Amino acid sequence: MTLDVTGLHAGYAGARVLHGVDLTVAGDETVALLGRNGMGKTTLVRTICGLRPPVVTAGTISYDGADITKRSSFQINRAGIAIVPQGRRVFGSLTVVENLTAVRKRTSTTGEPWTLESVFDFFPRLAERQRSYAKSLSGGEQQMLAIGRALMTNPSLLVMDEPSEGLAPSVLDVIQDRIAACGARACRCSSPSRTSTWHSRWRTAS
Ligand SMILES: Nc1ncnc2c1ncn2[C@@H]1O[C@H](COP(=O)(O)OP(=O)(O)OP(=O)(O)O)[C@@H](O)[C@H]1O
Predict the structure, then answer these.
(1) Which end of the chain is more exposed for a tag (fewer CB within 10 A), N or C?
(2) Model-level pTM?
(3) How far is the CA of 41 from the centre of ligand 1 (A)?
(4) pLDDT tier at 203 (50, 70, 90 boundaries)?
(5) Structural domain harbouring 112
(6) What's 63's domain CATH number?
(7) Where does the ABC transporter domain lie (predicted)?
């Protein structure tokens, strides 16, 4: 399954941000997108995942050969792309278990489907906090929950926006190790920056 972005122009009312972006993420690839503040990383991520705004004015986004440029975020998720958004955006008034089970699962096409148990195996800390409200979790725990919630949709492509934002290095190491353990190659960013955006091609096959 390959993500292909071709000649993408997108932006907001009065602000054109993306000017002809080309990007390909092939199967089993991990791609890191780096850039200074305001370059448009989040805009690109949101556009790929169908979140509005921004609005696409030209270009195409295809995934697994299908044109997803105009699809809704829900449809794009059903196609296999899941986002871990900037700022985590967990449901604060729901518990950890409720956050993980609130999402709609697609049929896994790339391996064993994710379950509560496998997410808890992946992030044991979430198992310990499973009855806690998300708003009471630490930043790192919320990031684990946001990743777990995305995994529960059984994605074939995981798009992570600033997954390291505000996290202590020790927590970041746990998250990076977990991602690497899942088969994403070369997940550690070559840049020393801890605020970069990662796009991880996710492979759930063991
Ligand atoms: N909702 C919005 N409405 C109008 N302009 C926006 C909106 N969101 C972002 N922008 C503008 O789009 C440009 C790109 O922002 P974006 O958040 O994509 O950058 P970024 O590379 O992710 O930055 P950072 O590294 O600081 O998170 C910025 O100039 C920003 O002001």
Answers:
(1) C
(2) 0.85
(3) 8
(4) very low
(5) 3-200
(6) 3.40.50.300
(7) 3-203
